[in-house]
Specification:
By secondary structure, the protein is an alpha/beta fold. It has helices at about 5-15, 30-40, 50-55, 60-65, 85-95, 110-115, 125-140, 155-165, 190-200, 215-225, 235, 250-260, 265-275, 280-285, 285-295, 300-320, 345-350, 355-365, 370-380, 415-425, 435-450, 465-475, and strands at about 20, 45, 50, 75-80, 100-105, 145-150, 170-175, 205-210, 230, 425-430, 435. About 45% of the residues lie in helices and about 10% in strands.
Length: about 475
Amino acid sequence: MPKLQGFEFWSRTLGGARHVVAPMVDQSELAWRLLSRRHGAQLCYTPMLHAQVFIRDANYRKENLYCEVCPEDRPLIVQFCANDPEVFVQAALLAQDYCDAIDLNLGCPQMIAKRGHYGAFLQEEWDLLQRMILLAHEKLSVPVTCKIRVFPEIDKTVKYAQMLEKAGCQLLTVHGRTKEQKGPLSGTASWEHIKAVRKAVAIPVFANGNIQSLRDVERCIQDTGVQGVMSAEGNLHNPALFEGRSPAVWELAEEYLDIVRQHPCPLSYVRAHLFKLWHHTLQVHQQLREELAKVKTLEGVAAVNQELKLRCQEDISRQKEGEKPSGGLPFFHWICQPYLRPGPREGSEENGGARSKRALEEEEGGTDVLSKNKQKKQLRNPHKTFDPSLKPKYAKCDQCGNPKGNRCVFNLCRGCCKKRAFREAADCPGHGLLFRTKLEKSLAWKGAQSRPQEPQPAGSGEPGSLPEVVGSALA
């Protein structure tokens, strides 16, 4: 089948999807995607996968994509972060048979993306991005898509989008925030940037940002002209967002736990989802927050969930007629609803005028003030220093970037060294790996076993040999 492109790909392969669940690290796993699809999502992305790790680690591939065939989980787009054309394409080739498209992450603004040199921190490297998209477009049997953040300037954002389209991108998701807009500084996403991009390109565009309800979805499509709308945080707090419903939290929490029993995932993912779903209730019943954080099994999580449900039902029974939700919430705390992230000023007002840690440090003498956590570490070890200039500098492994072994003969970390030494039947005394030595000993032992033993002349037997035993018996 020829590879579909642009609007044909969106309408036929993706079924003209308008309601999209965003790629979310450790949050858009299979169980959550299935829950979201049951409640109006028409297209889902996997969590962001690290291309280099996906290539070298079979367990990583199995846990994140190869775990099981699930026909209900389609259409599906697999997202990778990468900064090398060959690595990106090699990972995509391993994934293309399990999805409908491959997405390149150009939108992650977190510090880990800055250190790893991927995500939104590649947005100035247009030549590299052109090569990555072009090679993927040529080599893959499925379309390549991109998710980007905007530049402050609309004109530059439009040129950026056009460059990606020209390189071979078949669908573009535009998050209407810059890479500096994150955490408490998120602010409002610019739909003007998204609208300008939509008008300037001839491929489908999805909008991302400011989506908290189905009404926001419809307004965004109308205002920007995009083909679909992607939700991340809104979906985490209300998976029924695309249905236009705000059900009781326990209804969706119990449904999610049932799906997890059929399609298991790490307990940390489950706990994180329940913290989001129960966010407003945990502000009221704070003692259950600690219980949810401490449980070690899925049944333990389910028990805390049940206790939260009972507490909410007690709150409902005590509710007075005409009573309104507290804390400025649109609904009572047991109803799924959006969480509006407070800005820096709002956050300090909510905390009784408390200043941010960084502001306090600057006020009290800059970086000399240690955090409570660092002070505890220093109490345990008085000689410990937190001066970055005194931190040891580690040479990096030639393959994965982890610290390499100082005495490794291959200049690799232990994990990469073990794989190479095994593959080449070599020794690395620095890491205590003796594959070659063991192989030589094994071959020598096999050779000794297969060599025929020389017959000994009669009468020259050693003590305890057959001739002597027979002679003594006759005597």
